[in-house]
Design a protein that fits this description.
The protein has 350 residues and is α/β, with parallel strands linked by helices. The chain has 16 helices and 13 strands. The longest helix has 17 residues. About 8% of the residues have low confidence. Bound molecules: 1,3-dihydroxyacetonephosphate and iron/sulfur cluster.
């Protein structure tokens, strides 16, 4: 049993109510098609039933670090976006059950056209992917005809198909370096773009102005206040955070990088500015450390859970494995066009 302490930085009492309110405003519509009837029945031991289904279906369960702890514990592989794409590339099962968000499962399908890819909830989107519609991006690209396109993996297959190379938060500066001397469009996260521009010395990048609704919630002002109370704490942040938050961070990295640093750091107290699903791995690997949520803009809570990621539940995972629906599908011409920049990233990241 992990003993790491997780503390909400400020008053706990109002957190539940106000977090729920904030999330209601941001929450994606969630048609839970497979949970259609109030009569949906589930086995008493849901975890055991899911394990049985995984075996029966010859399925592998891939999960992102932002999933609920119980989903992470059931998964055959838990990772960040890059590690999950790499894992998807080497799968030899008939079925991939993907617990993350749609663009991640879609990437698995791009790499595995012959395998069935199922997700617990098709409505698990991403504000970055949804905020970069293909038709508008096509026009944006036409305005810069000489520019190459480097896209974050948090995009739809249509955007990937219009890109020269894909990156994730763990390899973005390295991927940007591939375009030295060339005009370069970076899409769709403006915060990640700014961090990459600094790291790769590409201040000239042409940036699509998207953002993540979760990482944008962190407040630099309240983070400074928290650091005063915990002067020995180390601050770890994801590059999707706002510039002012990153300036207060001691270490900026992808989710894998944050977990690794939290475990290896000599600091006993960590302030973490990313989705709190990563706390589960840190608790397991570094029991005893105190983990503080970076505070959100909202005065009473950190609000640091991705409403899309959290659409996935054990119940929906059970149903998608039992019924093999909903499946992620992709039209073959589009898949082939999106495959090229994804494969190029995987080759460069090997
Ligand atoms: P990672 O690349 O660190 O897994 O991040 C994915 C993501 O969606 C961040 O919000
Ligand atoms: Fe998208 Fe942000 Fe959720 Fe990551 S945390 S999946 S970037 S909305």
């Amino acid at each position: 049993m992990a003993t790491a302490r997780i503390l909400c930085a400020f008053a706990q009492a109002r957190v539940g109510l106000e977090c729920a309110m904030a999330r209601t405003l941001q929450r994606p519509s969630q048609p839970v098609e497979s949970l259609s009837g109030p009569s949906a029945e589930f086995p008493d031991d849901l975890e055991a039933a899911i394990r049985d289904l995984l075996r029966e279906r010859n399925a592998v369960l891939l999960a992102h670090y932002y999933q609920e702890s119980e989903v992470q514990d059931l998964a055959d592989f838990v990772g960040d976006s890059l590690a999950l794409a790499q894992a998807a590339q080497s799968v030899d099962h008939d079925v991939i059950a993907f617990c993350g968000v749609h663009f991640m499962a879609e990437t698995a399908k791009i790499l595995n056209p012959e395998r069935t890819v199922v997700v617990p909830d098709l409505a698990a989107g991403c504000s970055l992917a949804d905020g970069c519609p293909p038709e508008e991006f096509r026009k944006f690209k036409q305005e810069h005809p000489d520019a190459a396109v480097l896209s974050y993996i948090n995009t739809t297959a249509e955007i990937k198909a219009m890109s020269d190379l894909i990156c994730t938060s763990s390899n973005a500066p390295k991927m940007a370096a591939e375009f030295e001397g060339q005009p370069l469009i970076f899409a769709p996260d403006r915060h990640l773009a700014r961090w990459v521009a600094q790291r790769a010395d590409r201040p000239d990048m042409i940036v699509w102005q998207g953002s993540c609704i979760v990482h944008e919630q962190f407040s630099a002002k309240r983070l400074v206040q928290l650091k005063v109370v915990h002067p020995d704490a180390e601050v770890l942040a994801h590059p999707e955070c706002d510039e002012a938050v990153l300036e207060e961070a001691d270490f900026v990295a992808s989710t894998t990088g944050i977990i690794k640093r939290a475990v290896e750091s000599e600091a006993q107290t960590l302030i973490i500015a990313t989705e709190d699903g990563v706390f589960h791995q840190i608790q397991q690997q570094a029991p005893g450390k105190t983990i503080l949520q970076a505070p959100g803009m909202d005065e009473s809570c950190a609000c640091n859970q991705c409403p899309f990621m959290r659409l996935n539940t054990l119940e929906k995972l059970f149903l998608c494995l039992r019924d093999l629906t909903p499946q992620v599908e992709i039209e073959e011409d589009l898949r082939l066009a999106a495959l090229r920049p994804v494969e190029r990233m995987l080759e460069l990241s090997a």
